[in-house]
Amino acid sequence: MTSGLHPALSPEQEHALGVLSGASRVLLTGHERPDGDCIGAQAALSRVLESLGKQVTILNPDPPEVRFAQLTRAVAYGVDDGGAVPPHDLLVLLDGSELSRTGRLAERFEAAPSRKLVIDHHILPPDRWWDACFHDVTASATGVLVARIAEALGVELDEVAAQGVFTSIVTDTGWFKYSNTDAETLSVAGHLVQRGVDIAGQFMDLNQRRPADHPVELGRLLARTEYFAGGRVALLTLPLGTDGRVPEMDTDDALDVVRSVDGVEVVLFVREIHPGLCKLSARSKTSFDVASLARTFGGGGHRKASGATLEGELADSARRVVQLAVQQLGS
Ligand code: 5GP
Ligand code: MN
To answer: What is the dihedral of CA 166, 169, 175, 180, to 10 degrees?
Structure first.
């Protein structure tokens, strides 16, 4: 029986569902610097599986941002301390499909004698290393896939799970602004509101509790905007702070401003995360495929939102990315 909120499952998704149903000790993991989609989907899946009597633990490579505390406090959220991974019979990777995206955890996961399941909405790598995969590149967020799984398992989302899926959706659709927002996304969101999600409260918690220096930091970053290819490519760069730390900055806040400029087609945000190591976030306003751009640098993502980790100094990394984007845009 279906509610009409979601599309029918594919045979591969049915197989993934069987693998999930058959497990009793499940370990959930996600990508480095987990975002709201990753954490929201994990929190939701954790509650769904617990309601079925399974033992569920979350182990991520990095701690969550404080704004996700309501979710992470409600589930068994753990951060890698370099030690042994907890015993489990199924490892589930959410919001990514390459084990390398779990950073230092990847080696231990690989060595674990568990079955492996991927739940993701990004383009998959050619190497299918998993036992099962619940995947749909058209899903706006991994949280939407968890909502599909819950429905297929006959589990109603509880308050935490509903908040998790909502966090996933608003993170990955930019609060329903981006082109991945579709009818399923809006139907699911409507259902979540019926389940008690407080939209204004969520907006307050997720996006309206920035530190006092946020406007100054954002202004400083935006003041460094550079344009290339006659204004079709915009570049933002953010070096490490003078204290050697990564400045707190929500990538999407900055990207949204630059993306709003008329004529800009591609926005590239390169931020230094360690000396000699940078993180790229790329966004496209047109059919230009930034996932393909990111893959050139070993990253990935979606056609309109992608990322990669770049080795090299900030200025050099930025120059390489801009050069390729300008070249791929053509004239
Ligand atoms: P963001 O710029 O918000 O970090 O990421 C945008 C999109 O690109 C997300 O869907 C994210 O999963 C993907 N992405 C970001 N960084 C990487 C990366 O290093 N590797 C891969 N494969 N995807 C990435
Ligand atoms: Mn996602």
So the answer is: -160
Q: From CA 168, how far away is CA 304, in angstroms rounded?
A: 17
Local confidence band at 246 (pLDDT 50, 70, 90 cut-offs): confident
Closest-lying ligand 1 atom to the alpha carbon of residue 96: 12
What's the confidence (pLDDT) of residue 84? 97
User: Across-strand partners of 94?
Assistant: 119
Q: What is the mean pLDDT of the chain?
A: 96
Q: How many CB atoms lie within 10 A of CB 246?
A: 15
- Looking at residue 2, its pLDDT comes to 56
Amino acid symbol at 172: D
Predicted confidence at residue 208, as pLDDT, reads: 95
First-to-final CA distance of the chain: 52
If phi > 0 it is left, if psi is from -120 to 50 it is alpha, else beta; for residue 263 that is: left
Candidates 79, 39, 42; CA nearest to 59 is 79
| Geometric angle at alpha carbon 125, from 111 and 232, rounded to 5° | 135
Find, among 29, 74, 23, 65, the residue nearest to 47 by Cα.
74
CB-based contact 326:233 (threshold 8 Å): yes
Cα(43)–Cα(158) distance, integer angstroms:
11
Q: Which of 225, 222, 168, 218 is nearest to 192 (CA)?
A: 168
Q: Which tokens go with 254?
A: 């900055």
* Residues, CB-to-ion distance under 5 Å, ligand 2: 37, 95, 142, 172
pTM, rounded to two decimals: 0.94
Give the atom of ligand 1 at the shortest distance from the alpha carbon of 255. 2
Contacts of 46 (CB under 8 A, 6+ apart): 28, 56, 58, 75, 76
Structural domains of the chain sorted by starting position, each given as residue range(s) with its CATH number in brackets = 11-207 (3.90.1640.10), 215-330 (3.10.310.30)
Distance 230 CA to ligand 2 centre (A): 31
Q: How far apart are CA 314 and CA 247, in angstroms?
A: 14
C-alpha 306 – ligand 2 centre gap (Å): 10
